[in-house]
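User: Can you predict the 3D structure for this chain?
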Amino acid sequence: MKFMDYDCPEELYYHKEHSYARVEGDLVVFGVTDFAQKQAGTIKRIQTLEPDDEIEQHRPYGTLSSGKWTGKLQSPLGGVIVETNTVLEDTPKTVNESPYGTGWIVKIRPSNLEEGLKNLMRAGTAEFGQWLTAEHNKYKKPA
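Assistant: Here is the predicted structure, written as C-alpha cells:
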C-alpha cells in the first residue's frame, strides 16, 4: 500500500523507529522503511551485529549512515541473528533502491514471536496512519 509518498507493504510489522519485520517461516527479516531510507538520503554504510549475536526488541542491532545522518537500527523483535545481508557491505545503497526486497539488513530466529509482534504496528491501521503522518510532519522541509 502507498501512504502519502511512502511504500508501506501491509504484510509487514512496523517499529516506531522506522524498521520493519517480515515473518518468513521460522525466521524474521529486518530492514528499514521506505520513509527511513528517503529521510536518510543515499546510504553510505551499514554495520550490524554478527550471526549468533542475541538481540533484544527495541534495542540497537547496528547503525546506518548516509552523508547527512548516522542512526541506530532498532530491533523490531528479539532473537538471534542468523544471517546478515553481505551485499550491503559493498553496495549499501541497495537499501535505498529496494528497502523491502534486496535491501533487507538481517534475518533472525525470534525468541518470542507472538508476544513481540503485539508491540508492532501494521500498515492500514489508524495507529499506523497517525504515527506516519506525525513522522512525516516532523521531518518535512519547510515550504
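The radius of gyration is 14 Å. The mean pLDDT is 95.
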